[in-house]
Amino acid sequence: MMVSCDQAQLMANLIKLIKAKKVIEVGVLTGYNALSMALALPDNGRVIACDINEDYAKIGKPLWKEAGVDHKIDLRIKPATQTLDELLAGGEAETFDFAFIDADKESYNEYYEKCLRLIKKGGIIAIDNVLRCGMVLKPRKDDLATQSIHHLNEKLVRDARVNISMIPMGDGVTLVFKL
Fold first, then answer.
1. Which tens digits make up the pLDDT trace of 47-79?
2. 173-178 and 119-128 as β-strands: parallel, antiparallel, unpaired?
3. Alpha helices in 26-169 (DSSP H)
4. Would you give the DSSP letter of residue 31?
5. pLDDT value at position 94?
6. From CA 1, how far away is CA 51, in angstroms rounded?
7. How many Cβ atoms sit within 10 Å of the Cβ of residue 164?
8. Which residue, 153, 152, 93, 150, is CA-closest to 123?
């Protein structure tokens, strides 16, 4: 369930490449990727880390502190859609540089649309688990998670607002570049 080391390294390198300062993470789990991204940010950078369960995040919190980046990570325990809506309502549209989506798959499209509004032109949204072990090619009728990702994949190919690159790393990650 956790991002792989190579994925975390790629996300950190992308953050450095675009000189990101503001990052969103939808789905924190143990906080490994939040740590990796925070380490890649400048000292005044911040990660808005969204999750609904603090139990797993408690594993990473001491490591954030030990690494000296806990001041960069703003963990928000509530539905990610609520946090994203609050950011939009607070006037933060097009102020974020990077977003990483890896949470409940049924909500991926909603996360994508909200993150796309929050990310500035030239920013990147990374969407994890886009291959679903190949099941996205022919999702079962009872597998809503895979159906949701299948529909999002089809949408991304045709979305004129972005360019994409799907990478067969881990369970597939799509990099979405906002135009």
1. 999 999 999 999 999 999 999 999 999 999 999
2. antiparallel
3. 32-40, 54-66, 80-89, 108-118, 144-158
4. S
5. 98
6. 14
7. 15
8. 93
Residue with the two structure tokens 């291959």 = 131
Could you say which residues of the chain have pLDDT below 70? Answer: 1
CA–CA distance from 25 to each of 52, 75, 137 (Å)? 12, 9, 27
**Assessment of whether the complete model's pTM goes beyond 0.85:** yes
Round to whole Å and give the CA distance between 114 and 38: 22
- Structure tokens that stand for 136 in this block: 């996205």
Could you give phi then psi for residue 102, rounded to 5 degrees?
Answer: -155, 70
Asked if residue 118 lies in contact with residue 99, where contact means CB atoms within 8 angstroms, the answer is: yes
Question: Which residue shows structure tokens 């924190």?
Answer: 28
Nearest to 80 by CA among 56, 105, 52, 57: 52
**Mean pLDDT over the full length of the chain:** 96
For residue 36 the two structure tokens come to 């990796």
Contact between residue 118 and residue 92 where contact means Cβ atoms under 8 Å apart: yes
CA atoms within 13 A on the CB side of 106: 3
pLDDT at residue 109, rounded to an integer: 98
Owner of token pair 């675009």: 18
Measured CA angle at 38 (ends 32, 42), to 5 deg = 165
